[in-house]
Amino acid sequence: MVRREIMRGEPWIAIPQICVQDDGDLLVTYTPGGSPFGYPESGTFPVGRHPWMLAGGTSWRGHGRLELHWTGVEHSLFLFWAGAEREFQGWYFNLEDAPRRTSIGFDTLDHELDVWWAADAETYEFKDVDDFEETGPARYPGRMPAIRAEAARIAARLDAGDHWWDKSWAEWTPDPSWAPRALPADWTTVPFEAR
Length: 195
Known about the structure:
globular, DUF402 domain-containing protein, DUF402, FomD-like_sf
């Protein structure tokens, strides 16, 4: 399936992923290392090209990324591993649009503001706060208060010891036969719902 980000009414980036689980409420996807990034060839790009494109990013590096998405929820949970032993690194609460299903996968938009809880840390920390405050007015006009509120809601739940995800995902391993997928040729033209 394809994860697309829709920025200000047009595709901004796409990443081919593998569907691990989909029960209608929880959607779990995996991005193998080496998965290509797709950037649209044309557009108005009112806030500029995607930062990964500007940095020369062409594919996902490392062991891959597991993503947990809940229907109607304005964040996902990313899991990362590193090193020869594929050591679990921690929980990355990625603030983003709730997934909107498409004929090729789903659409979302990363909100830049994140909450990171390293596997060896006692508590979490906020990430990219300054970047969010700087770029947010142009990227998410009128939505910044709601995004901040979602970050506060995540922090409050974590502070209360409410772990709403299954921690056993940290032990998950991909099928060794899973290789990076290619993006469909028409990924930019598949209809989407703009926010």
